[in-house]
Amino acid sequence: xxxxSNNIIFLNGKFxxxxxAMVSIFDRGFMYGDGLFETVRxxxxxxxxxxxxxxxxxxxxxxxxxxxxxxxxxxxNIIHNTLKINGLTTGNAYVKLIxxxxxxCGRIIPSKSLKPxxxxxxxxxxxxKIKHYQxxxxxxxxxSNKIRSIPQVKSLNLLANITGLIEANQRSMQEGIxxxxxxxxxxxxxxxxxSDGKSLKxxxxxxxxxxxxxxxxxxxxxxxxxxxxxKRAAEKF
Length: 237
Fold this sequence. Notes:
This protein is an alpha+beta fold. The protein has helices spanning 28-32, 50-64, 72-85, 128-136, 159-170, 213-224; strands at residues 8-11, 14-17, 35-43, 46-47, 92-100, 117-124, 140-142, 175-180, 183-187, 194-195, 199-202, 228-231, 234-235. The model has no long low-confidence stretch (mean pLDDT 92).
């Protein structure tokens, strides 16, 4: 199968055609899922909440001990340049920024002073499905398990999320919700809010969920509108 899509990829300081943007089999992102990512939405070249996404990325790198020498300004510039070089400064697009711990000799314990791998992919975004779900809603099911070792980090190791979406799809739904006993946590690709029309309830970060950027902005906007926010455990219903 030919996966080429005529995209230009940023990889370790170079812009390359997608069929030449390759990493070593010994890259720790490939070997162990040892890395991080952020996915951001672009509207006519303007990237939604980019500073907050980069803030989370830099914080996550510190948590797992990736030595990220590049500044947030540098990462922002190359993200915008990747959009530009792919002709995506108009219309809807998404950008995925990937950081791995880098090339290593294959041991589980990483070697010291590794140079992180940095890759950026920008693609056009078809918003038809998104608009459909915004208007009609999504079907969701409670999933059978929850396996995320460092929930506050947006890790490349998405196996729990992937198997959760597979389970949801097998049950003819679009999203799966992780739980801990009767406690609602988060979706495979979403944070959870429950509204009674007067207030919003969302699980607290301390319950073991990802601190979603959109979640943060929803909370801030709700407070500005005088909507009461309850950060406490939500139970199955």
